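Exercise: predict the fold of this chain.
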Amino acid sequence: MGHPVLKLTEQFRYRSVFAAWPNVRTYDGLLKSHPSTQTIVVNSQFTNALKEVLCVENATLDLGNIVVSVEGSLCEVDEASKSRYNDPHRLFILQLLLANVRHGGIEVVTLQSSQHYGHHTLPSPSYEDPAILI
């Protein structure tokens, strides 16, 4: 089509630990993190919410460098949209979202249409619902 193609080689948006996967997967090792990304601090409300959901309130972990493996995870495909989803992950994200609201911050991102709350029938979350809260 004649449009110029530019490849991102430096990112400024997130901690460099999160650049490793797309760097290998998409950028053939060309993606570098700007030095300013080394000073990015994880939002304290999000850290407190994550500690609550993971039941590690007294942990001294850097929760800005953590990958969570959710027990019972299974990738399923929505027949109508062919979008992939994972109910245990969605429930974990709902727990994290509610904890984050309680701690005063919101930091949830989802990319797939089937991962949006309400696409599949899930119980309406409430602070008293023991199925949602840990």
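Check your answer against the key: Residues 43 and 53 are 16 Å apart (CA to CA).
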